[in-house]
Amino acid sequence: MALLNNELKQQLQDILNQMKDEVTVALFTSEDKCETCSETKSFMEEVSEVGNKVKLEQYDIKRDSEKAELLNVSLTPAIVLLDKDGKDYGIKFNGIPAGHEINSFITGLIEVSGSGEELPDAFKSRLDKINKPVHIKVFVTLGCPHCPGAVSKAHKLALENDFITAEMIEAQTFNAEANKYNVSGVPKIVINEDHDLVGNQPIESFMEIIEAL
Questions:
Q1: CA-CA distance, 67 to 61, in Å (whole number)?
Q2: CA 168, chain centre distance (Å)
Q3: DSSP letter, residue 30
Q4: The pLDDT of residue 8
Q5: Exposed, middle or buried: residue 138 (CB in 10 Å: 0-12, 13-18, 19+)?
Q6: b vs e for 52-82, b when ≥16 Cβ sit within 10 Å of the residue's Cβ?
Q7: Rounded to whole angstroms, how far apart are CA atoms 54 and 27?
Q8: Separation CA 135–CA 189 (nearest Å)
Q9: pLDDT, tens digit, for every residue of 82-97?
Q10: CB of 148 within 8 A of CB of 101?
Q11: Is residue 19 within 8 Å of residue 109, measured between CB atoms?
């Protein structure tokens, strides 16, 4: 069953035409208990058919364990975005990026393609000084209208600095992870395990925590 009707496909095609270079969508699924793997697979196939610069590569997390380890994938379904040269910026989606999260997914595709918005020079100078590992988790639900903004900001930071990685985690799909990090409201942002933010915070709030690490 198609997840995108003809009108949505046309809208998506118009947006994805903004992409500068090709982006590889590395999709990891599992034959084990994975409630949304089939749906995510269908969704990504539809997106790749619509976007002529979207290249879909499909992997099984067990059969392709070396690739999963290389891209730091441990949950399924998971999506990692790679640029035209196959570079991994640490931009990941755990769970289907549907509902409101289609917005953060599309933004991710455009950003990794090289068509994203430039950050102010002063902010980029601050980012350039980050030289230790930073990992950002953004917990979301698909019905949350404020979550895509938080996800896109985290992914933008990862795109701009090789020491930063960022992942969306769909809280209902990955309930155990959500419980581990005491997620009671979304978006919940966890930076390096110990630092929390709740809500669609400005990118400056991310930066203040990162700089203080």
A1: 8
A2: 5
A3: -
A4: 87
A5: buried
A6: ebbebbebbbeebeebbeebebebbbbbbbb
A7: 12
A8: 10
A9: 999 999 999 999 999 9
A10: yes
A11: yes
Annotate 68-114 with DSSP letters as a single string.
HHHTT--SSSEEEEE-TT--EEEEEEES---GGGHHHHHHHHHIIII
Please state, in angstroms and rounded to a whole number, the distance separating the CA atoms of residues 9 and 2. Answer: 10
Which structure tokens are listed for 179?
């419980």
If DSSP codes are grouped into helix, strand and coil, which group holds residue 191?
A: strand
The letter for the amino acid at 95 is G
What DSSP character marks residue 5? Answer: -
What's the one-letter identity of residue 47?
V
Q: Provide the token pair at 116.
A: 């994203």
Q: Which amino acid is at 99?
A: G
Encoded tokens for 63: 């059969």
Give the residues across from 165 on adjacent strands: 135
Which helix (H) or strand (E) covers residue 134, if one does?
A: strand 134-140
HSE (side-chain half, CA atoms, 13 Å) at 155: 30
Structure tokens at 150: 């938080």
Number of other CB atoms surrounding residue 187 within 10 Å: 25
Q: In Å, what is the CA distance from 209 to each residue of 153, 163, 166, 200, 201?
A: 14, 15, 14, 15, 12
Q: pLDDT by residue (tens digit) across 24-58?
A: 999 999 998 898 999 999 999 999 999 999 999 99
pTM score = 0.96
Rounded to whole angstroms, the Cα distance separating 10 from 15 reads 9
